[in-house]
From TrEMBL:
Protein species of origin: Mycena pura
Cofactor: heme
InterPro entries in UniProt: Cyt_P450 (IPR001128), Cyt_P450_CS (IPR017972), Cyt_P450_E_grp-I (IPR002401), Cyt_P450_sf (IPR036396), Cytochrome_P450_fung (IPR050364)
GO molecular function, a single term: heme binding
UniProt protein name: Cytochrome P450
Keyword field: Heme, Iron, Metal-binding, Monooxygenase, Oxidoreductase
This protein's pathway: Secondary metabolite biosynthesis
Residues binding heme: 443
A Pfam short name: p450
Family that this chain belongs to: Belongs to the cytochrome P450 family.
Length: 541
């Protein structure tokens, strides 16, 4: 074996030292031109500067501390830029959306679990554009009108189910959301219980909630771990991912094949799938390719639309429990327009309910940090360097709780902030659009989501009182009002399904005690609900 001379050793040591200091100096230089932020530790960077809960509040605090609405964090070598004001969000995610519309990679979610069909997680590029275009055609405001009958019917079935077992309200909200989406997208009439389509989708959504937070698994930080063989100790994540992948792969295929079979048998209901398939078959061009896009888009409706709507409605239940005086006002507003003999309809003009629905999205945004974007080219903003590849997070919570925009006490649920003195919607107040994300990635299901929320809120208010539960001594039990946090420490993650997780874990545990729903106005409402049961029987058979 050859051995190096002392001179060679000294030269090598010098070379390494030189390299080390050059890299350090380069990093310092780069860091100094990044937006301000906590300095962090070697290697791990700022991961310990981000708390495990309520990260959006920590980012607002950093913004104050560094006197900058744009802050930068280093998460194990990756740069995360957090935008804490409406101005910064507009300047970058809206006005420069050409380069700010990418997504960071999701190694566990996409590569291991198989959500590659879901365009919400696709990089900005032709595949994403194609799917988004097809989606938008079906969810633009004029098309959304076609979905209203399904939303109304599902709202009525929701009331009936709440009446039967109010303590299972979260399950009923899920059923309602699934019913709207499966019937709109595929023309599928779901079963009242144990529907197989719902079961597959819920398992896949659970997988999404577990893996959508980048950083939940080490493989997110070290993608090479994807290749670890399953027999090695510590590779449990791969087995779990393989189990989830079965449902995730089945989610787009099973309902799509159902539609194809129903069409072949001449029994398909009207749906987005059927309308687009008619077009595809008529034109005959690129049939397989276009069908694959359609299959993905339909599945994206459930994947993106179910948990979100459920989460917002669960916040509604919470708000009505915490602010009973608002509930009374909202019920009075509904009663005044709707009267005692029917349930609300989309044609009803009830500004107070509009205000409640807006306040809901503002007060407890489903995605407090939206869904992370990524920037595809180097950029300069306010003199700061934003490096290509950085994850860019819009702090929706900061905007939606900004008292300069929405007035005082933004932590309280105050629908009046949206109203003029005469009780109409005040058009001068910025709509809660921030709750639906930004720029080219803004939620394309926004209109449908808002109408779904509206009809459920109005219908529940018309039929039920929502009150705190009492313990065995009759003492009211206070709900904690806490939510889970979705953004894990390493990289800007997702909030998908996290409110659901909280409700599932905490609320369900003392659900029967904490929140119960009672029939309001006794017989009068019961009569209405009997009518609804009649309607839903037609639906179920
Ligand atoms: C209250 C309900 C909802 C809320 C709060 C919500 C919010 C959001 C947010 C914050 C994003 C990320 C936007 C961004 O990256 O900047 C998003 C994306 C998306 N949403 Fe929604 N959403 C809701 C309901 C729905 C519904 C009902 C559908 C479908 C029918 C839907 C379909 C989608 C899709 C497909 C994307 C991915 C867009 C893309 O990456 O291009 N959402 N949503």
């Amino acid at each position: 074996m050859l051995s190096a001379s002392p001179l060679q050793n000294a030269s090598l040591a010098l070379l390494f030292a030189g390299l080390y200091f050059t890299v350090r100096a380069y990093r310092r230089l780069r860091r100094s031109s990044l937006p301000p932020g906590p300095s962090g530790l070697p290697i791990v960077g700022n991961i310990y500067d981000i708390p495990a809960t309520n990260e959006w509040l920590a980012f607002m605090e950093m913004s104050r501390k560094y006197d900058s609405d744009v802050i930068a964090l280093n998460l194990m070598g990756d740069t995360m830029i957090v935008l804490n004001s409406v101005t910064a969000i507009n300047d970058l995610l809206e006005d420069r959306s050409l380069i700010y519309s990418d997504r960071p990679p999701f190694p566990t979610l996409n590569d291991l679990v198989g959500f590659t069909w879901h365009f919400a997680f696709m990089p900005y590029g032709p595949e994403w554009k194609e799917r988004r275009k097809v989606f938008m055609q079906q969810f633009q405001p004029s098309q959304v009108l076609l979905h209203r009958p399904a939303e109304l019917k599902a709202g009525h079935v929701l009331l009936q189910r709440l009446l039967e077992s109010p303590e299972k309200y979260e399950r009923h909200l899920r059923h309602m959301a699934g019913m709207v989406i499966l019937s709109t997208a595929y023309g599928i009439n779901i079963q009242p219980e144990d529907d197989p389509h719902i079961a597959i989708s819920e398992t896949a959504l659970h997988a999404m909630a577990c893996t959508g937070n980048r950083g939940s698994f080490w493989v997110d930080s070290f993608p090479i771990l994807k290749y670890v063989p399953e027999f090695l100790p510590g590779s449990g994540f791969k087995q779990k991912a393989r189990e989830w992948a079965r449902a995730v792969t089945a989610m787009p295929k099973v309902p799509y094949e159902f539609v194809k079979r129903s069409r072949a048998a001449g029994m398909a209901n009207s749906s987005i799938a059927s309308r687009v398939l008619d077009d595809i078959e008529e034109s005959g061009a690129n049939q397989d390719e276009r069908e694959k896009v359609l299959e993905d888009v339909l599945a994206a409706c459930y994947a993106a639309g179910a948990d979100t709507t459920v989460s917002a409605l669960a916040s509604f239940i919470l708000a009505m429990t915490m602010f009973p005086e608002i509930q009374k006002k909202a019920q009075a507003a509904v009663d005044e327009v709707v009267g005692p003999n029917r349930l609300p309809d989309f044609e009803d003009n009830i500004p107070y309910v509009d205000a409640v629905a807006r306040e809901l999205l503002r007060w407890r945004p489903v995605f407090p940090l939206s869904v992370p974007h990524a920037v595809t080219a180097d950029d300069v903003y306010k003199g700061y360097h934003i490096p290509a590849g950085a994850v860019v997070v819009g702090n929706s919570w900061a905007v939606l709780h900004d008292e300069k925009i929405y007035g005082p006490n933004t932590d309280r649920f105050i629908p009046e902030r949206w109203l003029t003195e005469s009780g109409e919607i005040n058009k001068a107040i910025r709509e809660p659009d921030t709750a639906f994300g930004f720029g080219r990635r803004i939620c394309p299901g926004k209109d449908m989501a808002q109408w779904s929320l509206w009809i459920c809120v109005a219908s529940i208010l018309a039929a039920f009182n929502i009150t705190k539960g009492v313990d065995e001594n009759g003492v009211p039990l206070e709900p904690s009002g806490e939510y889970t946090s979705g953004l894990l420490c390493w990289l800007g993650g997702l909030q998908v399904g996290s409110s659901r997780a909280k409700i599932a874990t905490e609320w369900r545990n003392y659900l029967i005690n904490v929140i119960y729903t009672e029939k309001r106005a006794g017989q009068r409402i019961w009569v209405n609900l009997t009518l609804i049961i009649g309607l839903s029987k037609v639906y179920y058979t």
